[in-house]
Amino acid sequence: MDRIRIKGGRQLKGDIRISGSKNATLPLMVAALLSDKKLVLHNVPRLADITTMIQLLSQHGVEIDAGTGENGHAHGTTLTLQTRRISSTTAPYDIVRKMRASVLVLGALLAREGAARVSLPGGCAIGARPVDLHIAGLRAMGAEIDIDGGYMVARAPKGLKGARYTFPKVSVGATENLMMAAALAKGTTVLDNAAREPEITDLAECLAKMGVPVSGIGTETLVIEGVEQLKAATHTVIPDRIETGTYAMAVAMTAGDVELVGARLDLMEAAAQSLRAAGVVLEKTNRGVHISRANGLHGVDVMTEPYPGFPTDLQAQMMALMTRAEGASMITETVFESRFMHVPELSRMGANVTIHHESALVRGVPKLRGADVMATDLRASVSLAIAALAAEGDTTLHRVYHLDRGYERLEDKLAACGADIERLKG
Ligand code: UD1
Questions:
Q1: Contacts for 392-396 with beta carbons within 8 Å, 24 or more apart?
Q2: Residues facing 4 on adjacent strands
């Protein structure tokens, strides 16, 4: 298993190119199941999760061609996806257990084929993460769903019907699943209390290009008119706002000066506001976002919430930054239970953090020390890399495969800005 070694103490300076959004790309790829026409996606990041989605969709019968940037999209991969026919309606346990976002195929398969068998994702390092909302929403559209042998077995022999469904809790994945099901359902679907994340907006805009009338884009009420057939479409994936926030925090941690090329500040206003309160300078430039720091860091309180609130996917990174701030910071996680696995590892590096139910009190310390630390999930692992950049001595990050699910060439991007970082193979 690969490890990453980081020697702390270098300021980050230069440019970092921000990749396309992983969490936008995954549902966009699944949308290809809805149509027999081509879907071309530009600016796709090169990540392990994308490879897993290619594997899953291929076994459903999607033909996928991966090329490098064309049409002026010189960054990331261009994927061309086409589903002339669905060859299997089963999403097997072996793939779903590797990547929870696999459950997104449920709505699309059911809408196109009238049947789907999708493994339950099972346990996850960050809380229980059930799929009850996905199931309840599809049932409201006329699906019959049973749980059998660890699988969701869904049928809609007469097709899905448009319905009005109010999510009892905001869920990104359930909103995406229902949007895709609604695209091929008979009639109009109204989704209330829908998630408003930029990745939802990206999917809505792509569905619109594929010929599905969608209104209320960016609001908590999405209205989708089902169609009989979708059209060919081309779409460019939005930049990754979580990768952007992560590098902004890494730069702030080292009191560096970096331009995040291709980033969009408008997609991360809550995080930008917290960072500014902590003393970080974020400026929109014509290439992206410029990050610097005039003075020291101050502790700020942060609470995670669905978009447009502070994203849970930046909570661990913000905590790493706050370990070195002046004063205390209260970090409250309201989206997921047990998403503080990074705390014991940060503590091993000298951080002072006390957990109390869903909040963590972080008291800034004058220095962190390098250590052997272990990644437990994607965002937790990158928070340890941020801490390591400012720690005295060497840190070795183990279980780097978590990081590779969501960060494209992290060590290359940081090394190009002056970090002392290397990947140790095997
Ligand atoms: C997506 C993101 C993930 C991010 C999360 C919240 C992708 C691939 N992943 O995950 O990176 O951390 O949004 O922004 O886009 N819930 C239920 N029942 C359900 C579904 C969800 O109770 O049927 C709960 C979850 O346990 C969690 C909350 O709702 O507490 C939000 O989860 P959700 O928005 O669904 O997250 P994901 O779509 O899995």
A1: 392/8, 392/9, 392/367, 392/368, 393/7, 393/8, 393/369, 394/5, 394/6, 394/7, 394/370, 395/5, 395/6, 395/7, 395/8, 395/349, 395/370, 395/371, 396/3, 396/4, 396/5, 396/371, 396/372, 396/424
A2: 397, 423
Task: Tell me if the pTM is above 0.90.
Answer: yes
Ligand 1 atom nearest the C-alpha of 197 is 14
Cα 104 from Cα 200, distance rounded (Å) = 13
367 vs 364: CA distance, rounded Å: 9
Distance CA 400, CA 384 (A): 11
124 is catalytic: yes
| Ligand 1 cavity residues, CB under 6 Å | 23, 26, 100-101, 127, 129-134, 169, 171-174, 199, 312-313, 335-336
Place of tokens 């091929």: 184
Could you report the per-residue pLDDT of 183-208, keeping only the tens digit for each?
999 999 999 999 999 999 999 999 99
H helices of 254-314, in order, are 269-277
Which of 64, 124, 232, 261 is the catalytic position?
A: 124
What pLDDT does residue 376 have? 85
Judge whether residue 56 has pLDDT over 70. yes
